[in-house]
Amino acid sequence: MSVEEELLDDDLFEHFRIVADPGQSLIRVDKFLADRLRNVTRSKIQTAINEGFVKVNDKDIKPNHKIHPHDVVVVSLPEPPRNTDVIAENIPLNIVYEDAHLLIVNKPAGMVVHPAHQNWTGTLVNALTYHFQNLPQMPGNEGRPGLVHRIDKDTSGLLVIGKTEEALTALAKQFYDHTIERTYWALVWGEPENTEGTIDVNVGRSLKDRRITVAFPAGDMGRNAITHFKVLKALRYVSLVECKLETGRTHQIRAHMKFLGHPLFNDTQYGGSEILKGTTFSKYKQFVDNCFKMIPRQALHAKTLGFVHPATKEHMLFESELPDDFKSVLDKWENYVRYN
Known about the structure:
Helices cover 22% and strands 27% of the residues. By secondary structure, the chain is α+β, with helices and mostly antiparallel strands.
């Protein structure tokens, strides 16, 4: 008899309890949970269902069981649920600006913004909790004190942190109204046909892989997403592109540039870690491999951040330098194009 078979209900700990809305449409329970549990794949949910860790109205079910209005879905697991209290950690922060109301941080690549699945420590929020006690939280934003936006783990650059409830609310409204100015620099494969333009294409989670965002050009799925781009340097094989966000969807720039046919350089999730431009002869391939090693992440940096100060109402604009890995790989491509 397996360990799973030996587990009794008394040995399980309730992790999630979700009550279906009164207007809930008939939908498979595995999809229902996949849409509501962050960072949990549908296959893991199906495994949990098959092992008896998911019940609907206190009854065992199968992954294809249909959810009805008012159904109570409970996920119970052998280990107790993790405490959501954020652990304060003495992690150095690159503080660009600070006053009594807000904080501007230049996040390094490789740092996760907030604690989540497989990243409970070492995050920006863990560092903020240590350095600044009693940072406010937005409703539904528990465990992410002071945050009104975030950037991906392997994206570097500027983030604004609210230090008071008033500042947090005012900044959140500016993000909601799309009045925040955000400019990113990206190194992308190839040279875009137009040196500047606007990508106005819906994006949303991929139906095949929920970890990534894809474009839905027909507009029948996803959410409205708008990116304004401008080529700053065309280097034959790659281009340095400035991207200004009008909206701020998850992985928006990465999905939009892939849709345009120019994935970010060394973006593994979006196809940029393959040689997409140039020949495949050994000398060139070795050069590209060396570039990949120099910047072992997607080449994306949050360059500028502008907003109206929540207290003084002054317009503020911050700019950050490209980090060393990005700067080095850009120099390497410029030299390669100059001499080849």
